[in-house]
Automatic annotation (TrEMBL):
<dbReference type="InterPro" id="IPR001296">
    <property type="entry name" value="Glyco_trans_1"/>
</dbReference>
<feature type="domain" description="Glycosyl transferase family 1">
    <location>
        <begin position="277"/>
        <end position="438"/>
    </location>
</feature>
<dbReference type="Pfam" id="PF00534">
    <property type="entry name" value="Glycos_transf_1"/>
</dbReference>
<protein>
    <recommendedName>
        <fullName>Glycosyl transferase family 1 domain-containing protein</fullName>
    </recommendedName>
</protein>
């Protein structure tokens, strides 16, 4: 038994100074699962990471974690200090686009590329290619979580061994992230609550008198039938030519959007937030609240959806860095929004996020850049949700447009149109969700662990230290 060190930029929460808590992002989830594989092989994982604040040492999830303060303009220097302090074989689990001096015989992981922004200067992109070449020259093998990085290296770099870059997509525990059981509508819940109250009331009456059936029983039954009929009409698929007229002055469609099919039916108008008889349709954004994850297009799309559909609510279920520019903007938007009652933000633990998927009807992954094979996308698919994802990075490996989700170009207009399409078409939501679940099964966590076990065993053999790792 020996130690294997993982060097990364984030594991525990160095953003909010909560050093003993694992940050709720995809990279952090990946490292947690990788540590589990390392322990399964009889070794001890430890993590070395950057800290936005002071250096620290902590222990969480049975893992020793060491944080390093650093100069944001000199990340490689911090990785040099990490490598000098690390024990045993080293896995570089991020920042491969930096000019790092890799310790010979080390393994690397690319969690998705972050230089895929169209507006990034060409000189910067050329420089990144040079830094990736350093990684290819300095690491014995690089594991990529999506085909995006693999294709980039083949196009922009040179290397002799075709197996030096190994594709192991991210994974999901399909036995845990399962579809939610059927849910009753609000009308059904209200009817059940009314019946329970009525039973209690009549039970009290029978203590002193015979049970008297209320004369309004038949009327209640008829009312129930009418309510259910109304629910069926409200939940039935809506013709694509029909939408809604926005009564909220804070949400308007442009002429271009109307020409694209987002026009509204002249006979329908909603002007308040009164709940409809049917259960609300919940849209879930299960991502970090950050610019690269598409939070701005999501907020703009939310403005229009909330104004147009009084039975829509939106949950933002991801980490938020308090005090950041994006974090402050989101808090202000949520607090002052005219439909703030239908906007929810909650940060879930890895083990609790399934609850958010089970309460949702649609999941949205509107990434602008820097995306691998998204854990959130896989989890939503495994829970049988229809997913709207932008065609960025590894999302192209997961979503087949129109089969198991909707794949759109990044941006607010396409996102809004896709959301309206699914909000109005329950049948399509259900169909996409069924095939999303089927797709997720091929990304099961057990497959990922098996593949990583083989990679680690080969890595330790190649470095000549499988028996008795140096500490």
């Amino acid at each position: 038994m020996g130690i294997i060190s993982i060097l990364t930029h984030s594991f525990t929460d160095g953003y909010n100074r909560e050093f003993s808590r694992v940050f709720g992002g995809g990279l952090e989830r990946y490292i947690l699962d990788l540590c589990s594989v390392i322990r399964g092989l009889g070794h001890i994982p430890e993590v070395h990471q950057l800290s936005y604040f002071e250096a620290f040492q902590t222990r969480t999830e049975q893992i020793d974690v060491y944080g390093y303060d650093y100069d944001m303009n000199n990340v490689p220097e911090a990785f040099d200090r990490m490598a000098a302090a690390a024990r045993g074989p080293i896995i570089y689990a991020s920042c491969l686009w930096q000019p790092i001096h890799y310790k010979p015989g080390s393994l690397g992981i690319c969690h998705g590329i972050n230089w895929d922004r169209p507006g990034l200067p060409l000189d910067t992109k050329r420089q990144v290619a040079e830094h990736i070449q350093l990684a290819l020259d300095g690491l014995v093998r690089i594991v990529s979580v999506d085909s995006h990085f693999q294709t980039f290296c083949r196009a922009a770099c040179t290397y002799a061994d075709s197996e030096q870059i190994m594709l192991i997509p991210n994974a999901v525990d399909t036995s845990y992230f399962i579809p939610a059981p059927p849910r009753r509508t609000l009308a059904q819940q209200h009817e059940q609550a009314w019946l329970e109250a009525w039973k209690q009331d009549t039970a009290l009456q029978t203590e002193s008198a015979d049970l008297i059936i209320p004369a309004s029983e038949d009327a209640a039954g008829d009312s129930h039938a009418e309510t259910e009929s109304s629910n069926l009409q409200e939940n039935a698929p809506v013709n694509d030519q029909h939408a809604i007229r926005i009564g909220d002055s804070n949400a308007h469609f442009s002429d271009k959007e109307e020409a694209a099919g987002l026009t509204v039916h002249p006979d329908l108008e909603y002007t308040d937030d009164k709940p409809s008889a049917s259960r609300a349709i919940r849209i879930l954004y299960p991502r970090r609240i950050s610019s690269e994850r598409g939070i701005i297009p999501m907020m703009l799309a939310a403005d229009k959806l909330l104004g147009a559909f009084p039975n829509v609510e939106i949950e933002f279920a991801g980490e938020l860095v308090e005090g950041s520019t994006v974090g402050r903007a989101f808090r202000y938007w949520q607090r002052t929004h005219p439909h703030t009652a239908r906007i929810r933000q909650h940060t879930y633990d890895f083990r609790d996020i399934r609850d958010a998927y089970h309460q949702a009807d649609i999941a949205v992954i509107p990434t602008l850049f820097s995306e691998g094979t998204s854990y959130a996308c896989l989890e939503a698919m495994s829970c049988g949700l229809p997913v709207i994802a932008s065609n960025v990075g590894g999302l192209n490996d997961l979503i087949q447009d129109g089969f198991n989700g909707l794949l759109i170009p990044p941006g607010e207009q396409a996102l809004t149109a896709a959301l309206i399409r699914l909000v109005q078409d329950r049948a399509e939501r259900e169909r996409l969700g069924i095939y999303a679940r089927e797709t997720a099964l091929s990304y099961d966590l057990s497959i990922w662990k098996s593949r990583w076990s083989r990679v680690l065993e080969a890595f330790l053999t190649e470095t000549g230290i499988k028996e008795g790792i140096r500490t």
